[in-house]
Queue: 4 jobs
Job 1
Amino acid sequence: MAKYIFVTGGVTSSLGKGIIAASLGKLLLERGLKVTIQKFDPYINVDPGTLNPYEHGECYVTDDGAETDLDLGHYERFLNIPTSQANNVTTGRIYQTVISKERRGDYLGKTVQIVPHITNEIKRRFRLLEYKGDYDIIITELGGTVGDIESLPYLEALRQLKRDLPKNDVLTIHLTLIPYLKTSQELKTKPTQHSVKELLHVGIQPDILACRTERPITDEIKEKLALFCNVRKQDVIEAIDAETIYDVPLLLQKENLDDIVLEKLDMPNKVEAKLTTWKEHLKKLKNPKHTVNIALVGKYIELMDSYKSIIESFIHAGANNETKVNVIPVKAEELSKNTAEILKNVTGILVAPGFGERGIEGKLNAVKYARENNIPFLGICLGMQIAVIEFARNVLNLENANSTEFDSKTPHPVIDLMQEQVNLINKGGTMRLGAYKCTLDKNSKTAKYYGTTEIQERHRHRYEFNNKYIDQFEAKGLKAVGKNPVSNLVEVVEYKDHPFFIGVQFHPEYKSRVVKPHPLFIAFIKAALEKQNNK
Ligand code: GLN
């Protein structure tokens, strides 16, 4: 039997439910408990794979190929435990299941309704991981904000679950905002009181209040919140703005959140969470000896959440190198002219993943500039494909070489649609997704960085390197040093006459962890530092 912790959000979105869930998960994990975290999202898309990054930030991909919400990235980075398809559920998926059952005749004769049919399906999914893994605690983040129409079925399912299971098996943490009013110079509790009322209205009494605040919460405020929201004073937890998200587990530990949770769940509370490696990481993160400027070239840079995992990977790899990494967002379109001028202060260039033609010319210029000026370059997914196109055009002199994604009639389709993609009609969940094996050439730099020739990385793409051109590329020095052992798809290219020029068809950023920064990012930052020292 697993115990359940639910995290709901009040007053406003973007309070950091994902970080609170991940931080609490980390504290419990460090105490020796088996923990997993799942997220339920109230939108009708079956998964976030079909969403433009501007809508919802990055789409995070798991080993089993689920396209998920970016909070799952936080869960994996904090806990260093892989998540799966079952860890992210949307309203779309719930309805899809119920409607298919209805069509099959599973409810024959019955009127299918939100209560009980949709809520039963939500409850089934709340508990799915309990049967899949042997967990002590399952933390569930409920997306959205209390009071939203679309959140209601989830809250109703939670109310029922609290009733179905023994008293000490389910608890609710309500993350809320305590705004500070400059004019009156005080923290205000009213929005939280209203939000808790909203929860009570649907039959849920929160057990713990986590109060997001920019200023320390006084005893008086805690008392007031406790009184009006019907919780004990010690169950009002301060969640103060942190310098980095990686401070949050320590801040919550100071507030005794893990002790309180274990007490309420009636679980033994013996070992303290030590967080040794975590603290070492924080120490390095906060005391950098060097600084490097890295350009992140992409088309969604107005919303940097579109590149969440890449940015976090830089933070992990930077700390590992005792280096502050200044990630400079560069809008791909702007590089269509003045490339050298825009990139003159960076000693590393990352060309980001992406879809569609916008910004391609600018990205090609960024790659050319990196290649010709020996600037460390890392191309991820589309970034790798751009590196291949640039090399084809400017080194192999294949005029108008392109990816068929951007020019279906190109005379030189150096990047082409994968065979299994040709006849696909549906867009959702049909890319090459999830973890695939890759064998690295033992003499490659990439193998040296990984410290092995057998790796496994996650994918999300439809197009691939066209193997018909492989000899031409290799003759001029762009080597295919990583291949899938079964399909022979090219996964890594490396330019030999360059200090660091690597393109990867997979997404290394999905596998960087606080306690295990990704080797490619570590090596990339090292190369950028060297470039800077030689400048
Ligand atoms: N658009 C490219 C493809 O589908 C790259 C995808 C990506 O960068 N994730 O292959």
Job 2
Amino acid sequence: MNGPFYLFITGGVVSSLGKGIATASLGFLLKRRGLRVIPLKFDPYLNVDPGTMNPFQHGEVFVTEDGAETDLDLGHYERFLGTNLTQTSNVTAGQIYASLIQKERRGEFLGQTVQVVPHLTEEIIHRIHLLEQQADVVLVEVGGTVGDIESLPFLEAIRQLSLKAPGRTFFLHVTLVPYVSTAGELKTKPTQHSVQKLREIGIQPHAILCRSDRPLSQEARRKIALFSNLPEEAVFLEPDVESIYEVPLMLHEQGVDRYILETWNLPVDSPDLSDWERFVQRVLHPQHTVRIAVCGKYVHLKDAYKSVYEALIHAGAELNTRVEVQWVDTEALESMAEEEVEALFEGVHGVLVPGGFGRRGVEGKIRAIRYAREQRVPYLGLCLGMQLAVIEFARHVAGLEGAHSTEFDRHTPHPVIDLLPGQDLFEKGYGGTLRLGASPIRLKTGTQAYALYGHNVVLERHRHRYEFTPRYREMLERAGLVVSGEEPIQRLPEIVELPGEVHPFFLATQFHAEFKSRPLTPHPVFLGFLRAALERSGVSVAAEEPTG
Ligand code: GLN
């Protein structure tokens, strides 16, 4: 090889095509062929990172090991590739402009007019080059849709880069081929136009990946190929599937990975995908079912809790179990009568409160936690779900009336969750002021957490500002709350749980366990939670594992 290969993925026609899943799936397939693959997502918006965006705008903020707040597609990349990524794998237009303007102020362009071409495009190309040392293939997904004004510099940059790497690039264009029921036909025109748009920019795709809810007819394939200047075998289909984890297998079946390798003149062998196939089989055809209530305020937007949902799928597959998620709107929960709450949680085998910010729906979440604790329903709390479990316990078990987090009530008599002294909140502005990224946690022997992990020290990822207030720790421990994991330097509580005699499974983590779950290596905390849920549903878990 005389330099890295570049697989560029662009999107056309509409957004939300599942380009991220396609990118992650191809990364997975190339990795299984023995290539070192590093993905990079370009996001054309001007925010420096998605950390300051509302989940309705953006879905989940995925946090990497090194503490970058990134696009949720990085979650897909990590899960499909099974590797930890860093900040360098998610670059926004905001970051590119910010670093260019800093350079200009430092005088690095003295005398010159700083322009989109060549300066901005060079900065973009530089971000791709940064990843090359460790990769055989750099997988570059350009966010947005071809034709958007803001993605133009990125497309121009990859066009320029491709000229310098003849024979080492591959442009894959992902489009939508809609079915128009009144005509009874698949329509290829939007795809044709989108490819024309791409070619106007100077990019001739090597292949088209069509999203469609049905198989492509011979006629549709022929038209797309003809108008795209491509042979028919370069037109592939990404069909709608029940599970996103089927996508790599579907692409492989059609030979997309083989086609890319042949274009690059790389050897083509048969990768072993049997472990993944087994995993997909367990996702699609499990023996058992549990119902988990996920209680949050963004339940109308499933992408807001993407990693939580995927972590449930992974642990479920390991336990041969389908996880039916019942999304519970915690704002609605606040005003419900007791019988309504009972009816809502009837038939639920586990309650999960994920992370969150802001006051809205908080009392509803506390109500859900109280229900789970009192009714002995398995409970898993993540980040805010841990802080609220501490508040609920303080109020209703330790008798600290009005206990709260100062995030929601600055004048609470019992700030059991608070900023640490010296943690000046908005001194630096909002962006990047949280505790972010992976740090070690020491587990206490003899606890549920210790039994689940089987290690003394684990590394988990954070994204929060507030902490379990150390001076309340002893009082709450005396009342029966177990602190089973702590941050080793200041001894900040990281995991709380209730002892097995009191509750079948009640455990909550200050970190986001969901970010480290992978299809083939589910997260221990999610496994523990689902095992308990499965028990509650009447299945004896001991006989179930491992499924192989
Ligand atoms: N809002 C809480 C904090 O800032 C929890 C954050 C979260 O759940 N990610 O500490």
Job 3
Amino acid sequence: MTELAKVPVTALKGVGAALEEKLARVGLENLQDILFHLPLRYQDRTRVIPIGALRPGQDAVIEGVVSGADVVMGKRRSLLVRLQDGSGTLNLRFYHFSQAQKDGLKRGTHLRCYGEARPGASGLEIYHPEYRALNDATPAPVEQTLTPIYPTTEGLTQQRLRQLSQQALARLGPNSLPDWLPAELARDYQLGPLDEAIRYLHRPPPDADLEELAEGRHWAQHRLVFEELLTHQLSLQRLRESLRAQQAPQLPPARKLPQRFLKNLGFAPTGAQQRVGAEIAYDLAQPEPMLRLVQGDVGAGKTVVAALAALQALEAGYQVALMAPTEILAEQHFLNFSKWLEPLGIEVAWLAGKLKGKARSAALEKIADGMPMVVGTHALFQDEVKFKRLALVIIDEQHRFGVQQRLALRQKGVDGRLCPHQLIMTATPIPRTLAMSAYADLDTSILDELPPGRTPVNTVLVADSRRIEVIERVRAACQEGRQAYWVCTLIEESEELTCQAAETTYEELSSALGELRVGLIHGRMKAADKAVVMQAFKEGLLQLLVATTVIEVGVDVPNASLMIIENPERLGLAQLHQLRGRVGRGSAASHCVLLYHPPLSHIGRERLAIMRETCDGFVIAERDLELRGPGEMLGTRQTGLLQFKVADLMRDADLLPAVRDAAQALLARWPQHVSPLLARWLRHGQQYGQV
Ligand code: ADP
Ligand code: MG
């Protein structure tokens, strides 16, 4: 039999050019794609359920005789059809119906329906059931298997997808769909045969355990989940290999610059900073590109580590680019690096998207000319930015950058030949299991020690009915010479509304706290205005800063010791942790008030309680993962890494260690199986993370 991966969808009955295009849009190009387009869930249409035995919420096939059909005028006009089967009666309700439809539902008509039974005004009702009239002479067979419900897109019906999978299944056999998991691995990890798993999942038998399937615990699912996670792992390891195969500038350990830098710094690096610094220094001295992730909780001092790495490249006469996801953060790095490097005689350039006109072309020219240190936003990724001798790229807060952007950097190396080293820093601690999967292409260093003298932030939950007391608290703190943040959270995904709310809050607090100097900062302000406000807050000219979550990452004002977060229930825990990390940076005892809007849901209360209990980012990340699931936590859109078809990182996290071992075995012993697996599971171009 021909391999199904080689048979185009147009080989199926009923697939013409128009349908071919629709299918291509969801990545279905050949029969293997069709078979790996798996149902999201199932309906049981294999049995007719007596009306008397129906439970509310149950999806079921029922049969009965129409005992009456009336148009009723409730809140909305609807057609109500009474159906009875000897065991009971229920109503079918139609809000949209034609005269012809009404005529077809006359008293005495024998119907078979499918739909969800819901509690109605008088017993159970089914809204807009699928139905057909039965002819008493010829009995209508029920379905022989559970009915699959596929993920779909506009213009592609379930009916159509079922027909296609039916046809593809008819051609399925062990030879038409090669099993790329070697028998030895399948045995070691107790994985069943691929073709049987596929057949089962498209058309489960009537006795299949729907609950087990819904929870993803069935062996057939397990078989595919394993293969999918394995493939994902392989793609990241391939990515890593392809980067490692490049040449990178070898940077000898630096001596002079770090010495002078540390002397001026005013504090000694922590043990963790020294250890991670040494790991990086070693990598940079190698001829292949470093790909290292530094995970360190907020305030752990990642910037110093980044500076030490930069100095190694700078001392060797190369360029360094440092990029951050927001302008505020990039700007702060710019100020820090200018302060640190200029005394050493090293110039620092600035590049952001908002830099326009002459200033921009001047910056571009300087960079092309070999300006040693360049700090900016993702504008640094743009094609027009050409470096002369780029040897190291430092990316802060990596979870906002995609893999594809990291790859784009390859082209920016020395003469486009040497690939720059990459140092990625994140303050979003990722639970170990996930890190293994999400960052399989990176080496990891952990900065697990905070600089001395930090006191944990004391966090309290306060209902917003006590807002006035909280305002008084801000007054008291500022009168003692401390500074405070008042953070307004995102309103319904609308940045505009959120900024407006921040403006309103700013006015309210300015008038309530007339004697305090209050500032406002939000995402819709001009970069220059933001910088002025930030600078004033840093210098202590402003005592209270009303802000949106733009201050979430990196902003560093040690004298700020109080943070109020409005509606914290709207934010993820990782984000709350980031925000809270803006205080507790000095030696004063710091406080964070989570000013929530009651009533909180059960989970909402539990989540905020976690914030009160711990300041450890790793613990928070683990608990957040348990409560919310990984997609949300990592931000699927940003990473582009976690869009699985059958796997669910949360549910299947315990498989990851085995998956990683299997991936290593496959790469070492069956390398020819890797490409077919990638082609099977990943859409074109996604193979190296280019979503
Ligand atoms: P993050 O890891 O969150 O990026 P930063 O690099 O912004 O942390 O550092 C937070 C603060 O701690 C800064 O004010 C920085 O100067 C200070 N800091 C960093 N390392 C040390 C150290 N070893 N001793 C004292 N303070 C330090
Ligand atoms: Mg930082």
Job 4
Amino acid sequence: MPGSDDIVAVACDHGGFALKPAVLEVLQEAGLEVLDLGTDSEDSVDYPDFAQNLAEAVISGRAGRGVVVCGTGIGISIAANRYPEVRAAVCHDETTARLAREHNNANVLALGARVTGPEVAKDCLRAFLQTPFSGGERHERRVDKLGRLPSSA
Ligand code: RB5
């Protein structure tokens, strides 16, 4: 069941926690409802657990899209992308965030607090929120294939 795009789930690990205020600021400024899935401090946690909670929120429809943050954006996006319904894109600038929406219909933005500063992260998030999927036969076909397990492709 797809969730409302007005509800955005946010999950990070301790390495991503420093960027969380910037993420919440943009979501609040955009008037979106936040489903905050933690973590809430710099105490060490395991990013796969937070990615799993976020993926389950998106898949169940509790949120329409999500933002995950770890130190690099890599570990938490790998974990989130283990779910075929999740298309998490690690983005480092506005252009990658825009193209992740236009071409890949990304439903989760992944950011790295240790590699991306807060202002660039905010630009990424605004582009992710505001850019529609381009659609069209070729992009639809490719995105469709992303949702199929290799054994059923
Ligand atoms: C945690 O130290 C760090 O490994 C994590 O935040 C992330 O960068 C993993 O990909």
